[in-house]
Amino acid sequence: MGKLVKKKNEVWEWTRALLIAAGIAAIIRFFLFSPIVVDGSSMVPTLQSGERMIMNKISYHFKEPDRFDIIVFHAPGNKDYIKRVIGLPGDEIKYQNDVLYINGEAYEEPYLDEYKAMFEGNNYTEDFTLEGVMSENTVPEGHVFVLGDNRPVSQDSRTIGPIKMEDVVGSTNIVFWPFNDVRYVK
């Protein structure tokens, strides 16, 4: 009889430990961090289709996105997109002669240098102004303006408009797969 009670206690202890571990994993997965797969070429050369990243779901509950953060957001068509934050609320955005201007100041985008070089003499990013793509001259409050790094093919704020902060799921900058290309992305 003593062996049976000891066996039941051991089974209960293992079951309880597994339930606690599953609960902790669920909390981490649903509220803190989760994996996301890059789908498509809109963030090339920074990210490649099929790469897996860790998304931080909690960071924007405590702070607003910073310019040039890579974010994940709910896009039209029940999809999540990965893009780079270019404009913050109140910013004036303009692209002219392959140069990004924010509030009249030119900004360098070193993450595009490799691809810009291949476009010799042609603009990698077509000229645009905010007013031309969304009929407002500044990014609205509670929104961000995003662009994909692969500007010629990216579906981003130039076509879908500014992104509501409530649609931002989180930030991402750690590639964990493929294993031979694990890296931190800026």
From TrEMBL:
- The lineage's top-level taxon is Bacteria
**Which reaction(s) does the protein catalyse, per the Swiss-Prot or TrEMBL entry?**
Cleavage of hydrophobic, N-terminal signal or leader sequences from secreted and periplasmic proteins
Where in this chain does the entry annotate a coiled-coil region? Answer: none
Q: What class of enzyme is it?
A: hydrolase
Molecular functions (GO terms): signal peptidase activity
UniProt keyword Protease, yes or no: yes
Query: Which residue ranges does the record assign to the Peptidase S26 domain?
Result: 12-177
Residues crossing the lipid bilayer are 17-38
Name the keywords, alphabetized: Hydrolase, Membrane, Protease, Transmembrane, Transmembrane helix
Q: Which Pfam families match?
A: Peptidase_S26
Compartments where located: Cell membrane; Membrane
Cite the EC number.
3.4.21.89
Query: What membrane topology is annotated for this entry?
Result: Single-pass type II membrane protein
Q: Which family does it belong to?
A: Belongs to the peptidase S26 family.
**Name by which UniProt lists this protein:** Signal peptidase I
Provenance organism: Bacillus spongiae
